[in-house]
Amino acid sequence: MAQTNRDRQVDHSALRTNQAFIIGLLILGFVLDVPVLVALVAAVMLVGTAFPSAGLFKRIYQHVLKPSGLVRSDVRLDNPEPHLFAQGVGGVVLLVATVLFVAGAGAIAWVLSGLVVALAALNLFAGICVGCLMYYQLNRFGVPGFVHAPLSGKEQAS
């Protein structure tokens, strides 16, 4: 079955909302020294990766922020898979951080959480998705499962 441009649409406002929640909750967790917030964000990210329609932060965007007019949609022709991959990588890093908190290695856990904050901020403020770049490199190398190449200018114009 051929995919259409509609299958390749991503609302970047939903992505930015997701990143803003990730950054805000992880910084709040660090400032208040509440590691459970890291575990919460890890769970939200991993569930949202496995079941994209169940992503809590994206649902807040869809059902609260967008309908209220606080955030407008920014739908673009884009592959959703690299963004989900990036979210999954971040979720796994935060899962490792959560395990480290439980093991008593809080300093390392906060460093990992800070890394996720930095990468989410890079994406939110500069539009650079490192996880997406990783996905596309894996596609370029022919790694199974990474089937979507970056959309070309011709596809984006149609």
Could you characterize what this model shows?
The chain has 158 residues and is mostly helical. The protein has one domain (9-157). Helices cover 69% and strands 4% of the residues. It has helices spanning 12-32, 36-50, 56-68, 80-102, 106-126, 130-140, 153-157, and strands at residues 9-11, 75-77. It has a two-stranded antiparallel sheet. The longest helix has 23 residues, at 80-102. The protein is globular and about 45 Å long. It starts with 8 loop residues before the first strand and ends with a helix. Mean pLDDT is 92; it is low at 154-158.
Cα distance, first to last residue? Answer: 19 Å
The number of helical runs is 7
Report mean pLDDT, rounded to a whole number: 92
Helix-strand topology string: EHHHEHHHH
Q: How many strand units?
A: 2
Radius of gyration: 16 Å
Helix content: 55-70%
* Largest beta sheet: strand ordering: 1-2
Unreliable stretches covering 5 or more consecutive residues: 154-158
For the biggest sheet, the summary is: 2 strands, antiparallel
> Which percent range describes the beta-strand content?
under 5%
When the domains are counted, the total is 1
Structural class: mainly alpha
The coarse silhouette is globular
Write the layout of secondary structure elements.
Blueprint lengths: L8 E3 H21 L3 H15 L5 H13 L6 E3 L2 H23 L3 H21 L3 H11 L12 H5 L1
Antiparallel strand pairs: 1-2
Helix pairs in contact: 1-2, 1-3, 1-5, 2-4, 4-5, 4-6
